[in-house]
Amino acid sequence: MQGKINLTSIGKLDDGWLWDTQTCGFGARHQTRGTFYYVRYRHGGQQILRSFGRHGSPWTPDTARAKAKELLGIVAGGRDPFAVEASGDLFGVVVDRYLARRQSSLRPKSFFEISRYLRVSAAPLHNLPLAEINRRRIALLLGGIEDASGAVTRNRCRSALSSLFSWCITEGLIDVNPVQGTATAEENGGRERVLSEDEIKALWRGLGDTPYDSVVRLLLLTGQRRSEIGSLSWGEVDLATGVIALPATRTKNHRAHTLPLSRQARAIIEAQPRRNSTDLVFGNVDWDRCKIALDARVGIAPFVIHDLRRTCSTHLGELGTLPHVIENILNHVSGHKAGVAGRYNKSKLLDDCREALQRWADHIDRIVR
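Predicted structure:
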């Protein structure tokens, strides 16, 4: 066999088979029609030997070895790789086809969000054939997403999945949408979570040096919304005066917002490198994956990122900050800023807000230390 084709990089000859010394279960054998690559594995109590390609373009010893590792990886996950291929399209492959079809019809922001839900949040489904994804699998996935990232993320991911499976029905890939019958979470309920001082200490000490960790620190220090800090650009930061100036297009209530920074908050921003690929201070943050990893590190009761806003507001009040100053910090349109009063009272109370946020940052320092 070696005289007909050079496969010495595979391994040693054994009873007509050439078995790889690097990857257990990968081998080759010369036959009448050529030299074929094989994988050997055990599944369901049986020894299985299957060929997956003949030597020659595109199959070389290196590419065949990579394919064998992929197939044996599926076996390690408890599945027969050849049964997977025979049972229909894999979810991850279908996601790529679906997104390629939808990209031209969606706004860039919408496409980015849907891609994130299907490729990141729904990652546990990627290696499953469509035929094996049922309502129970979807319900378990959505439950995990809600625990890690909250009700809003669960519902948005559920909507993205439902649209995908509806498209699969029109393509003749499946007959039933497995999302139908799963529950939507109550987004307006349970908005009472405030982190205690012990939890703040555990959270702060569990944060690392990634951009995501810096965003979380800044959210706790400032009480701003996730999108406002996560998508902060350098053009919105004035380090000389120590303020963040958000335009009306970037706030929920469509009102421009100027936020003074504590020394600690300013230091976090100053420590961020200037990234050539983007004007964003923290780059592109992978919220779902990073939040799951953070929860595993800090080990406190489940919370969502928006709870940090409520935590900041509540502790500001406990430190003696007046309600109208807290409203200014949070950019709420209520109380002294609502109605006629809101049209005529244009004071930003920047000095009061700066003093309050500095007092809160210093309090966090004492908690952590």
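Summary: Residues 7 and 60 are 9 Å apart (CA to CA).
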